[in-house]
Write a structure and sequence with these properties.
Elements lengths: L17 H8 L7 E2 L11 H10 L8 H15 L6 E4 L1 H13 L5 E6 L3 H9 L3 E6 L10 H5 L7 E5 L11 H10 L5 E5 L12 H5 L10 E6 L12 E4 L8 H4 L7 H10 L3 H21 L11 E5 L3 H10 L2 E2 L1 E2 L8 E5 L3 H18 L10 H6 L1
Parallel strand pairs: 1-10, 3-4, 3-5, 5-6, 6-7
Antiparallel strand pairs: 2-8, 7-8, 9-12, 11-12
Length: about 375
């Protein structure tokens, strides 16, 4: 017996960890810093770490109360009803729930390219077909409704990533509204705001609730995560905020107790840890500015906790930086073989990454591609 045909499924490539790299190279893990996975350089919210320790003795119980308490806290954060908050096992779990709630076999999902591979993976898991719209390098990966609508063909779901991974670009709310207006009534616009806390923009929840002069909509959902600004990537906690009309669907698509007791208690503590959030956002903004000023290559403006850098040959640069103790993300898997992505680290980590990258670029003597020129990227493909 064999599994079903998975030939159309693309495996997700996660950023490499310090222990993995150190074992492979036969070196001490303390020699390395990891700036490849957009993790929080300050670690988890201290309040969340305390909550995890205190909760450890109660993990024999199902997290019904904790799940309800966190749902209420998240709903209060956004000014929505509890029923509009769909807790999940990470942001990818929330993507799964939206697909479960919307897709019939053969429905199309429209996703950005470059973009997060799991949008397409999850769609295929749920027997949906995947189509792509392009964010163009020559336009600095600018996001607007027209870029999506050029490829739109009545797709059931359209994913917008704002801030976008790996480029850091965002789509203004007015453009998301225009996109929603121009698509069919049965098309859901799913706005992935995993990096939303780092952006100087309002959340698309305003479109769901009819805030800030927008009319309330039933065709927009927002994805958020505790992995980034709260530093809880390891406990797997995310959620979707959906229109009121979608409230009843959660009970029918939810995996029982999808968010664990530890995750829910950590989330409850983290959501009120404003000091950790402020510190993390400030570190991110300083690191982005430092890299744009000091890297000897083109660095795109970013509103995430990372930057995208044109280095000419991503594989060569990432491998050489790794050999020198700095792990960054080769963006070839995103379809950008000339670019690397560097997570915003602490001040010391960011300075080390910039110094290492500049030295590697000089030693390898690579030709990087001027902004707005796509010729070299095509040649690298």
């Amino acid at each position: 017996m064999q599994p079903r045909d998975l030939s159309d499924h693309v495996a997700y490539e996660a950023g490499r960890g310090i222990e993995e790299v150190a074992r492979e190279l036969g070196r001490d893990p303390s020699e390395f810093i990891k700036l490849a996975s957009n993790e929080n350089p300050h670690g988890p919210s201290p309040a969340a770490a305390v909550a995890i320790r205190e909760t450890a003795s109660s993990v024999s119980s199902y997290p019904k109360a904790a799940h309800a308490d966190l749902t209420t806290a998240v709903a209060a954060r956004w000014g929505v009803t509890d029923e509009q908050v769909w807790l999940a096992n990470g942001g990818d779990g929330a993507i799964d729930y939206l697909h479960r709630a919307t897709l019939e076999p053969g429905d199309d999902v429209l996703v950005p390219s470059p973009g997060f591979a799991y949008y397409g993976m999850s769609s295929r898991f749920h027997h949906g077909d995947v189509r792509e719209y392009d964010l163009e390098r020559e336009d600095d990966f600018e996001q607007d409704a027209d870029a999506v609508l050029e490829r739109y063909e009545g797709d059931r779901l359209v994913f917008v990533t704002s801030p976008h991974n790996p480029t850091g670009s965002t789509m203004p709310l007015e453009e998301i509204e225009r996109l929603a207006d121009a698509t069919d009534d049965e098309t859901l616009i799913a706005v992935d705001e995993a990096y939303g806390e780092f952006a100087d923009r309002d959340s698309a929840v305003a479109l769901i609730e009819g805030l800030d002069g927008f009319e309330a909509r039933d065709d927009v959902a927002v994805l958020r995560t505790f992995s980034k600004v709260y530093g809880l990537a390891g406990v797997r906690l995310g959620y979707a905020v959906v229109p009121e009309e979608w409230a009843d669907a959660y009970a029918r698509v939810n995996t029982p107790f999808a968010a664990s007791e530890l995750a829910c208690r950590a989330g409850l503590a983290a959501i009120d840890d404003e000091e950790h959030v402020v510190r993390t956002v400030e570190t991110t903004r300083e690191a982005r500015a430092y890299m744009r000023e000091h890297v000897d290559a083109h660095v795109w403006e970013s509103e995430g906790n990372f930057v995208l850098v044109d280095v000419g040959d991503a594989s060569a640069v990432a491998n050489e930086m790794q050999d020198r103790g700095v792990i960054v993300r080769d963006c070839s898997s995103f379809g950008l073989p000339g670019c690397i992505r560097i997570t915003c680290g602490t001040e010391a980590e960011t300075e080390r990454a910039v110094e290492t990258l500049n030295a590697v670029l000089k030693d390898l003597d690579l030709e990087t591609q001027p902004p707005g020129d796509s010729t070299a990227e095509v040649a690298d493909s």
